[in-house]
Design a protein that fits this description.
Elements lengths: L1 H12 L1 H6 L2 H16 L4 H35 L2 H12 L20
């Protein structure tokens, strides 16, 4: 029993034990852990939101590029000659008495 008391007194006299049993330190540590991991506005939650925002910004830029490409295509299709060429190339349309042969190479076919 005496050895246990001496062990406890050694622990209580330890500078780290005194530091981490201080009320303000305990409350501060609890607050930091709460804010980082547990709270609805935690750091982890904000980190995932920031990564989603970055992905959405990238997607927005890609969509802007697609819009510009589509606008160029629309402007090109206003000319009747380009309109006919577009229909022939993309939809395999043909004139009367005309045959279309589609040639596909092995390496151009998707699996």
């Amino acid at each position: 029993m005496n050895s246990f008391k001496s062990f406890v007194s050694k622990i209580k006299s330890n500078k780290y034990f005194k530091f981490f049993t201080n009320f303000y330190i305990v409350v501060s540590l609890f607050f930091i852990i709460w804010m980082l991991f547990i709270d609805t506005n935690s750091y982890l939650f904000h980190n995932t939101l920031n990564s989603e925002i970055d992905q959405l910004i990238i997607k927005k830029e890609k969509l802007k590029e697609e819009i510009l490409n589509d606008q160029k295509l629309i402007n090109d299709l206003k000319d009747p000659d380009n309109y006919e060429a577009f229909a022939r190339e993309n939809f395999f349309m043909k004139k009367k008495d005309e045959e279309i042969f589609i040639i596909e190479f092995k390496d151009s076919i998707e699996n």
